[in-house]
Amino acid sequence: MDLTLKIWRQKKEYEKGAMHAYQIKNIEPDMSFLEMLDVLNQKLINDGVEPVAFDHDCREGICGACSLVINGAPHGPDSGTTTCQLHMRRFNTGDTIYIEPFRGSAFPVIKDLVVDRSAFDRIQQAGGYVSINTSGNTVDANATPIPKPDADEAFNSAACIGCGACVAACKNSSAMLFVGAKVSQYANLPQGKVESKDRVINMVKQMDKEGFGSCTNTGACEAHCPKEISTDNILTLNREYIKSKLNQ
Amino acid sequence: MFFINLIVQLFIQFVDLYYIVIFLTNAKMKSSIIKKISMALSGLFLVIFLAQHLAINLTSIIPDGGKTFNTISHFMGYNPVVQFILQPILIFGVCFHFIMGFVLEYQNNQARNEKYIYHKTRSSWISKNMIITGLVILAFLGLHFYDFWVPEIEYKYISQESPDPLKYFHELKEKFYGETIRTIIYCFSFILLGMHLNHGLASSFQSIGVSSYRKKILKLAANIYSLIISIGFISIAIFHYFIH
Amino acid sequence: MDKDRQMLSIKEVADMLNVSQKTIRRHISSGKIQSVKLGGIHRISSEEINTLLGPEQLVQVSPCENFPFPNKVPEGPLENKWENHKGSINLVSPANKRNIDIIVVGTGLAGASASATLAELGYNVKAFCFQDSPRRAHSIAAQGGINAAKNYQGDGDSNYRLFYDTIKGGDYRSREANVYRLAEVSGNIIDQCVAQGVPFARDYGGLLDNRSFGGVLVSRTFYAKGQTGQQLLLGAYSALNRQINRGKVEMFSRHEMMDLVLIEGKARGIITRNLVTGEIERHGAHAVVIASGGYGNVFYLSTNAMGSNVTAGWKVYKNGALFANPCFTQIHPTCIPVSGDHQSKLTLMSESLRNDGRIWVPKNKEDVIKIRNKELKPTEIAENDRDYYLERRYPAFGNLVPRDVASRAAKERCDAGYGVNKTGQAVYLDFESAIIRYGKEKAVSSGQNAEDNSLVKRLGKEIIKAKYGNLFQMYEKIVDENPYETPMQIFPAVHYTMGGVWVDYNLMTSIPGCFAIGEANFSDHGANRLGASALMQGLADGYFVLPYTIGDYLADDIKTGPIDTEAKEFKLAEKRVKDFVFNIFKNKSGKPVDYYHKKLGKIMWDKCGMSRNKDGLKSAISEIRNLKKDFYKNVFVPGDMHEYNEELAKAGRVADFLELGELFAIDALDRNESCGGHFREEYQTAEGEALRNDSDYTFVSCWEFQGKDRAPKLNKERLLFESVKLKSRSYK
Q: Which chains pack against A, by 3+ Cβ pairs within 8 A?
C-alpha cells in the first residue's frame, strides 16, 4: 500500500519542531508499524536524509520503549496494543498517518519522536519499592500466604510497562494512572503495606514536582493503556493518599 | 436595620473570598491530589444544593396557586440561619469551585507546553470539556442572578421595602410565561448543567476514593441524578412558559 | 596506520601462522602466497593469508593442560563447595566499602540485582544502560517462569535434582560447581522476590503456585502469568531505585559502553558514549561488572530486543578476556515465523504452549503446495494425512522434547519441503485435540452432554483461553489468524546464547577486576539451556554470588584510592573510541548499517544456525571477513556524533557483531562434535540425533584475542565431572 506520513521532526530539545510529509510506497500489510518506519528510514538514509528517530526495543509489546501518537491516539487505533504490535493491515492504501511524539512538559522531546521519560524513573525512585535488603535472608516465600484475589489484583497493577501512554493520552498530561498502578500493587500486598504511608506521599510529591497535570477522570489513560490498566488504580491512589494524609 | 444587614452580607462575602485565597495558597494545596479532592468535595456540596434547589422549585408546579412555593421561598429569603450561615457557605462553595476549576485548568494546560497537532483520544467529549460546560453554567448564573437576585437585592437593601411573603410565585411566572428566549437559554443551560453533573458527580466519587466495588452503582447514580436535575429544571421552565 | 597493518612482513606472517619464516619464503617462491615487493622487502596482505589458508589453520591451540587461568573452583564435596568458599574468601570491611567504586554495565536481572546488592553492601555503584530506563532491559521479555528447587509441591525436588537436570540439559558442557551453586541459591531468589513484592501466581490457599516446564520431571517453575521476566525485573529495578534514592547508585541511562580501560592489567574503568548528547565520557572504578546480556542479535533476526548487543562483552574480549563457547546458541522452537523481508524481529511464544499443542506438517507434498497456495486449509487435512513428526520420532517425550531437539526436527521437515507457509519455513502447532480433550473433561465434570461437539469445543476453548489467552491474543495481533480456529504456525528462532565471556568460580573474567554475570557470561548452561533457567541464573549471579565473590578481589584494593580518569590509559582508550566514531563518519554516502546487519544475519542463520557443517562454516568465515571489509569501506551513517544518532549506535554494535560472527564460526568449526545447541551435520547418529564426543571435547573453548586481523588463540578449560556420569541424552 502507499501512504502519506506526516511526522514530527525536531532536531533537539530546545529547537523548534514541525510536521514533515513523506510519501512511502509498497508497504505490505503484514509489516508492523515500526517496520514500516524502518523502511522509511532506509529510504531516507539512501536519499542522504537523516532518519526519523523513534524509541523502540523489544518489539513484542513488553519493554515499554515504543511510543508514538498515531493519528491522535497514543499507540495507535487499537486498544490493548503497543505501537510495535500494531500492524499495517490496520491501514488502507492512500491513508495519511499523523505521527507525533508523546507530549507533556515532563516528557521533553530529545529528537524527533524520542522523548525523555526519566520522570517516571524518578517517581519510582521516590518510593516505588519495598525497603528490604537484598541478602536473601528474608522469611520463606510461603511464610505469608496472600489471598489469591489480592495477588491477582496486585499483578494486574504490576502489569504496567511504564510506556507513558497514559500521560500522552490525558488532556492534562497526568501521570496518575502510572503512579496509581505502582501504589496499588504494593497496597494490595502485605509486603508493601509497611511503608504504604510514606510511599504514596513521596511518589505523589515527586509526580507533582515533575510537572505532570492532575487527573480529571476522563478515562483516556485506561482506553489507551496497552496493558489496559484500570482507572481503579487512580481511585486506590486517591484513597491511599487521603488515608496517609489523615494519619500523618 | 437593613443597612446593617447589607454591611454584614458584604462582610461575609469578603470573608468568603479571603478564605478562598487562603485555601488556594496553602502549601497543602500544591498537591495535585488535594486539589482534585477539594474540587470534588466542593462539587459534591453543590450537588446537594442543586437537589435542594430543584425540590423547592418543584413546589411551584403544585396547583395551589403558588402557596407552598411562596411559603418556602419566604422562609429561605428571611430566615437568619439561611441568610447568614447557609448562603455564605453556598457562595463560598460556588466561588471556590469556579476558581479552583480555572486554576486546575490552567495548571493542567501548563503540563503540556507543546500541544499536539492532532489529538483524538478514546474518551468522552463531556469529560474532556468540563471547562466549557462549566463556563456556560457560569454565564448562566450571571443571567440567573440578574433575573432573580438583583431584583431581590434591590428590593431588600436599596428600596428597603417591607417583606411580601406572596411575591415569589408571581415573580417566577413573570419571568417565564411567554418569554421564549429566556426559556430557551435556561433549557440549554440545564442540558449543559446535566452534562457537567453527569461527569462531575461520578468523577468526584472517584477523586475521593470511594471503593471500586461500588463504582458501577455510583456511575449509575450519577447518570440518574444528572438526568433528574436537568429534566426537572427544564420541565419547570417549560411549565411556566406555557401555563399561567 | 590501518593500511600498513594490512600489509604484513614475512616475520609477522610466520608468527601469525606459527610456522617458520623459511616456510613462508618457500610458499612465496612457489607462488602459493602472493606477495608484493616494497623497497626490496616482501609484503603480504593479510587478506591473502586468510583466503589462501583454511581458517582453521590460523588458530593456535593450547591444550587443556596449559589452561592459563585457574577456575578457582573450591575443594571439597560438591554440596559444601559454596559454603566453604564463602567462609574462606576475603571480605571488605564496611568502612572500606565506602571508598570503593564499582561499575555495572547493563541493568537487566543480573545487572540491576547486582547494582542494588553491591550498593546495599556499601560500595559506590555506577550503573549504565543503553535504554532510556533500566526497567526496559530485555530480561523483561521472559515469559514462562523461574526455576527454584523449593519442593513446595512435594514432588521430590531437591538442589541436587535441579543441578542434575541443568547439567544434563546442558549436554554436559558446563562446570559442575557453578551449576550446583546455582541450584543451591535458587530457593533464596524466590524468598527475596516475594519479600520485594513480586506478584507471583498463587493458588486459592494463598501459597505460591508452580508449573512444570520443558522436559523435567518436577514442577519447580514459579511464574507470574506470561510476564515472569517483567515482574522479576521490576522487582530488581525497585531494589535498584531504592539505592538510587539513597544516593548509593548513580544511574546512567542512554549510555553505551564503548571500551574497557585497563591500568596495570586491571580493569579500572570504562569509556561510554552518552547516546543523547553524543559525548564520550570516562568513568573510573575499582572493578567493572559486565551484565550486558547475550549476543543473539548477531543473527539479525532473533527474539532479542533490537538494541541487545555484544559490545560490552566484546570490548572486554578485545582487552584480553577469554570468550567462551561462542557457538553455543539456543534456537527456540516456538516462535512466530518470518513473514517477509521487512521482518525486524521475531516473537517468541512461550514454551508452555507445547504442553497442549501438537506439532505437525502434512504427510503429502501435494497438500503442502495447496496450503501454500491457500487452496486448502490446515483444518481440512485428514488426521491420517498429518505427520506429527515429534511424536513419531520421540515417542517417549513427544512434543515436549528439549528445545534444541524440537528445533532441529522442525528444520528437518522444512528442509525436506514440508514447510507450511509461503516461505516454506513454518510448521503447525495445533490445539484442536487439546480443546476437545479439555472440553470433554469439563462437560463430563459439569454434567453436560459430552457428545455435543459444539459444546465440547466451546468449553475446551474457554479452558485454553484461561491458560494461554494472552499468548493467543499476541499471536492473533501479529499474524491476523485466530489460533482457536486454525493451527498456529511456528518456526524456530534464535533466542539465547549460552556462550559468553569466560569467568572463574568467582565470576571474574581473565582480566583482574572485570566480572561478567548473567547471560553475558558462559558459566551455567553448557551447550543448551533449560526453560526458566535464565531468570534464575541472572538473579543468582546478581543477588547472591557476585556480591560475595567480588569482595575477594576488592579486598586488595582498599588502599588504592579513587581512580584517576586523567591517567594515560583512559586517554588512550578514549582516543580509540573517538577514532572509531570518526572513522565511521568518513563515508558521505553508501549503504545503511542495517544492510550489513541483515547480510551478516543471513550468513549466520544459513551457515551457523540450527545445523552446521565444515564447508558452510569455512565459507561463512570468509564471507564475514569480506562483509567486514565492505562495512568499513561503504557503511554510511548520516547525522553527526554530537547528537542523538541511532544509526551511529547501531554501527558500533554491528561492527562488533561482525567480529563476533567470525569467532562464532571459528568456534563452531573447531568443535567437531554435536552437543546441545551446536549441531554439526558430520557428527550425528544414523537416526539423525546429535553425537557428542566426550573423549575429545569435554572442555570449554576459551578464545583469546591476539590482535586485529590475527587469528585468536584457543585455550581449553577441561570440564571435570565428579558427581554426575556423562550419558548421552535420549528422548526416544
A: B, C
Residue B118, CA distances (Å) to A23, A101, A142, C58, C466 in order: 19, 11, 51, 61, 38
ipTM here: 0.97
Report the CATH number at residue B163. 1.20.1300
| Whole-angstrom Cα Rg for chain B | 20
Same structural domain for residues A93 and A146?
no
> Cell triple for residue C268?
579500572
Q: How many domains does chain C have?
A: 1
Binning pLDDT at 50, 70 and 90, where does residue C27 land? confident
Q: What pLDDT, on the 0 to 100 scale, is given for residue C4?
A: 43
**Among partner residues C113, C132, C205, which is closest to A134 by beta-carbon distance?**
C113
Q: Judge whether C334 is closer than 8 Å to chain A, CB to CB.
A: no
Counted domains in chain B: 1
Helices then strands, counting H and E runs in chain B, come out as 11, 0
- Confirm whether C434 is domain-assigned: yes
The answer to whether residue C421 is domain-embedded is: yes
At residue C6, does pLDDT exceed 90?
Answer: no
- Which residue has better confidence, C152 or C340? C152
CATH of the domain at A217: 1.10.1060.10
Number of other residues whose CB lies within 10 A of the CB of residue C589: 11
Residue B26, φ and ψ in degrees, nearest 5: -65, 145
* Structural domain containing residue B97: 2-110+123-242
Domain count, chain A: 2
Q: Does B118 fall in a domain?
A: no
Specify if C432 maps to a domain: yes
Among candidates B104, B112, B118 on the partner chain, residue whose Cβ is nearest the Cβ of A104? B112
Which three-class secondary structure state does DSSP give residue A123? helix
pLDDT digits (tens, 9 = 90+) for A194-242: 999 999 999 999 999 999 999 999 999 999 999 999 999 999 999 999 9
| Pairs of residues, one from chain A and one from chain B, whose beta carbons lie less than 8 Å apart | 145
Q: Do C253 and A38 touch (CB under 8 A)?
A: no
Residue that terminates a domain, selected from A110, A142, A161: A110
The residue whose grid cell reads 519542531 is: A17
Contact across the interface for C305 and A63, Cβ inside 8 Å: yes
Residue A158 and residue A140 share a domain: yes
Q: How far is A205 from chain C (nearest CA, A)?
A: 14
**Closest Cβ–Cβ partner in B120, B206, B210 for A72:** B120
C48-62, C364-378, C549-563: the lowest-pLDDT one:
C48-62
Find the domain containing A77 and state its range: 3-110
Instruction: Output the pLDDT for position B149.
Output: 85
Residue C417's domain comprises 338-494
Note whether C478 contacts A85, CB cutoff 8 Å.
yes
* B31 part of a folded domain: yes
Domain boundary pick from A51, A76, A110: A110
Flag if B121 and A72 touch (Cβ within 8 Å). Answer: yes
Return the H-helix or E-strand segment holding C453: helix C453-479
Q: Using CA atoms, how far apart are residues C545 and C536, in angstroms rounded to an integer? A: 12
Q: What is the DSSP letter of C248?
A: S
List the single residue in C348, C478, C643 with the smallest CB-CB distance to A12. Answer: C643
C679 min Cα distance to partner chain A (Å): 28
